[in-house]
Design goal:
The chain is of the alpha+beta class. It is built from six helices and six strands; from the N terminus they run H-H-H-E-H-E-E-E-E-H-E-H. Helix 1 packs across helix 4.
């Protein structure tokens, strides 16, 4: 799956450098075998479950700058995105670079149902609406809401270096990806959805 993201980046033909960020020697060897040998490894401090991805990207940008390699645009492409495609990368990059680049570009997709109609469920299967009053509002009368598609984001190096922690999500613009082309791998059942969508889209 990681190699799918790397090949999508390569096939977009918009990147002068593709770097796979990892601290794992096994992943490093896999990347090498596909022609994507990392120029350096990620430090342990940025490789735990609580480290932010943006801090890892900041490390990469600064490492390359120390090697006198500077970039106008930097993309973060998620390794857990089996449906990311070169067409979206190329289109999103074009939109980002045509903007004033003051805000980052994040791949987003629409929630399949209005978030105002959401419920919480207890261990005893009791349902509690987030917004009981909104349940009486027709879907057609509510605005679409979007969420991070878990695919990619585009930044300027300066934006990355000025960011703290996970960054400021009020400083993003959205690149819309159709929901039928989005699945992020977080839970075991996500694999089944990803496999089904991948087969359907590549039939």
């Amino acid at each position: 799956m990681m190699m799918h993201s790397a090949h999508a980046a390569q096939n977009s033909e918009i990147f002068s450098k593709i770097h796979i960020s990892t601290d794992d020697k096994n992943i490093e060897e896999i990347a090498k075998s596909h022609g994507f040998a990392p120029d350096f490894l990620r430090p342990d401090s940025l490789s735990n479950d609580h480290a932010s991805m943006l801090e890892a990207v900041k490390f990469v940008v600064k490492e390359y700058e120390q090697q006198d390699m500077f970039f106008d645009t930097v993309a973060l492409i998620y390794a857990t995105s089996p449906l990311v495609c070169s067409k979206d990368l190329k289109s999103a990059c074009k939109e980002f670079e045509a903007s004033d680049k003051q805000k980052a570009y994040l791949a987003v997709t629409v929630f399949p149902s209005p978030i105002e109609h959401a419920f919480r469920i207890t261990e005893d299967k009791e349902l509690y609406p987030d917004n009981a009053e909104a349940l009486y509002t027709r879907t057609q009368d509510l605005q679409h809401a979007y969420y991070d598609a878990g695919m990619f984001a585009f930044y300027t190096p300066q934006y990355i270096k000025n960011s703290e922690g996970g960054g400021d999500f009020s400083q993003f613009k959205g690149y819309k990806v159709p929901s039928f082309r989005v699945t992020d791998i977080d839970w075991p059942e996500d694999w089944e959805r990803a496999e089904a969508l991948f087969k359907a889209l590549n039939h």
